[in-house]
Amino acid sequence: MQNTRLESNVNENIIQEEIQILTEMLLKATQKLISEDTFEKIVELKALADEKNYEKLNLIIKDLTQEEMEIVANFFSILPLLINIAEDVDLAYEVNYKNNIGESYVGKLSESIKNIKDKNILENINVVPVLTAHPTQVQRKTVLDLTEKLHSLLRKHRDVKNGLINERKWKNAIQKHIEILTQSDIIREKKLKVANEITNVLEYYNLSFIKAIAKIMTEYKLLLEENNIELKNETPITMGMWIGGDRDGNPFVTAETLNLSAMKQCELITTYYIEKLNSLYRTFSMSSHVTKGSKELEELANRSSDTSEYREKELYRKAISYIKEKLENTREYLLQDKELEDKYFTADEFIDDLTIIEKSLLENKGEILVTGEFEELLNVVKIFGFYLASIDMRQDSSVYEASVAELLSSANIEKDYSSLSEEEKCELLLKQLKEDPRPLSINDENKQSEELRKELAIFRTARKLKDKLGDNVIKQNIISHTTSVSDLLELAIMLKEVGLVGSDFARLQLVPLFETIEDLENSYEVMDKYLSLDIVKKWVSDNRRYQEIMLGYSDSNKDGGYLSSGW
């Protein structure tokens, strides 16, 4: 206990020291850009803020000119950013330290698994962090990159204190990046486009998500083994994404942006796989003269185009070379529609070839060789496939109602759908879903409204992406402001138009989003009626009896307040 308190005090001293270093560097960078008089005001304002002397703070702020106000605002925007970086570094260090010495802390994975009384719960667990769409996001990628660089540099502070890194060079590097930060536009002046959002968010995968999930999966499987837990569930964590598919209130999300989002993700994850295979190729230099390989491994190696005489006995390298060639062909097909014969049709086929290498290593006492980079690659492929993150589609229920009304009218089935009662709507929609396999949109597209054309185009793209990248690339469509069963069935009609829903199958889950207090109160009755429908029972049964329901916090909070919304 004494050691824990001592370590806590040491960490507290270090973080305060790091905050002081960053603050001094920010002051130095700011001083270069402004007059001495304005700089002195910033110093005084900071001191008063530290003292919580708000009365005097108000007096000084009131007298600032517009130019001074902008400078002061910039300084006090960057300062908390730097403090947050220091706190993040300290937290990461503390978690790593406690992991390494075996100390417990809230949320520790090993403790969580031990504390689960019913281990079967792990068989069905699936944690899905979802990156949502924010078309109003103002922080620039430039700032995110600078933040990441400063975070990386600050993590080396303890090595500087121990004399392992030159302190002068380290301080100069931090000072340089802080000065660049103070001289850069912190917020964007022009609205972020969907394509920019997609590019920006994928940087998080490169910087952290893929590595972090690979690390978590390795630890998770080791803990299962230590606790004698055998599971079939190999994907307790997967990723979700709204960017490119969330068109509720954002007219710039189209079939093109949905396709762009999926293809950019595919490009990123397949590039990662190829890089890992290149690294494994350099590493796995084992010779058949020394260690054996399985018959399956030999067959895989013989398919490689690598006929170098120096590789004759290096079966693992030849097998990895073949897998990489096949994956590169797959990548060409997925991204550029190039029809190449030797390619993977599914990520499972890619996993099968990697498993041949794994089994061969294990059969020949190469357990240690399976760990590390190879194990991480195999785990990541099982989680990310060729698509990286499942893209959730979302649209407001009113758009689906208007689209279905137009379809029914153009097909001479019902000229005034919107005037029907809820019961009449459901009866009509169910008849179309169960009894008539033909699409409604057989008329000339030029006669369709722009909104209907747009909706049908995005669903056709969804169908194409699922056929190409696998069903998991888009698993569900969320219906904003769901108020009734007909809202769900209207979406089903739209999906039926492109072959994603039929009388006995649903390749996309229909997810209601109940938002206002009234809608939340009615949600029980709506879902009870919906799930009791024979056609829906079939859809849900095909989805392992899983039905997702979303409860909105934003609108219900505005509508009824925090307590009522939460209840």
- Termini separation comes to 40 Å
Q: Which oligomerization state do the chains in this entry correspond to?
A: single chain
Structural class: mainly alpha
Strand proportion, as a percent range, falls in under 5%
What features would you describe in this structure?
The protein is mostly helical and 567 residues long. 63% of the residues lie in helices and 5% in strands. It has helices at 2-31, 36-51, 54-62, 66-101, 109-115, 121-124, 141-154, 157-161, 167-182, 194-226, 255-283, 295-302, 315-336, 347-363, 367-370, 373-384, 397-410, 422-435, 450-469, 485-496, 517-531, 534-542, 554-560, 562-566, and strands spanning 130-131, 240-241, 390-391, 393-396, 476-480, 501-502, 505-506, 509-514, 550-551. The strands form three sheets. It has a four-stranded parallel sheet with strand order 4-5-8-9. Strands 1-2-3 form a three-stranded parallel sheet, with helices on one face. β6 and β7 form a beta hairpin. It is globular and about 75 Å long. The model has no long low-confidence stretch (mean pLDDT 90).
